[in-house]
Write a structure and sequence with these properties.
The protein is of the alpha+beta class. The chain has one domain (about 5-60). It contains two helices and three strands; from the N terminus they run ββααβ. It starts with 5 loop residues before the first strand and ends with a strand. The structure holds zinc ion. Zinc ion binds near residues 15, 17 and 40.
Length: about 60
């Protein structure tokens, strides 16, 4: 079985931003998202709703 990676991009979330990331696991990917949001999207409040939205946008690549 081929191992799948998880991937996400800001553009998928509707942000005007070219950032994207991938990771082996959802947990790892969400950590990368958290770091990116802290650095580049300080205006964003990371609510449980936002976390759920981001998780729903994660793609298997
Ligand atoms: Zn971004």
């Amino acid at each position: 079985m081929i191992s799948m990676a998880k991937s996400i991009s800001c553009a998928d979330a509707g942000a005007d931003c070219s950032w994207s990331a991938s990771a082996e696991t959802e947990e790892e990917l969400m950590e990368k998202v958290a770091v990116h949001v802290k650095e580049e999207h300080k205006e964003l409040e990371v609510t449980p709703e936002l976390v759920e939205k981001v998780k729903s946008l994660i793609k298997e690549v």
